[in-house]
Amino acid sequence: MKRVSFVSLLMIAAVLVGVLAACAAPPAASGPQIKVDGVWGRPSPMMTNAGAFYMMISNSGTEADKLVSGQSPSCGTVELHESFKSDDGMMGMRPVTGGFIEIPAGGQAELKVGGLHVMCIDKKDDFKAGAKLPLTLNFEKSGAKTVDVEIRENP
Amino acid sequence: MHKRFRLSAIIVILLALAALTGCVQPYTYHGTELVSDKPAPDFTLTGADGQQVSLSDLRDKVVVLYFGYTFCPDVCPTTLTDMKQVMKLLGKKADDVQFIMVSVDPERDTPEKLNEYVTYFDPRFIGLTGTPEEVVAAATPFGVIFEKHEGTAATGYLVDHTATLSVIDKDGRMRLLFPFDADPKDIADDLQHLIK
Question: Are strands B62-68 and B165-168 parallel, antiparallel or unpaired?
Answer without folding.
Answer: antiparallel
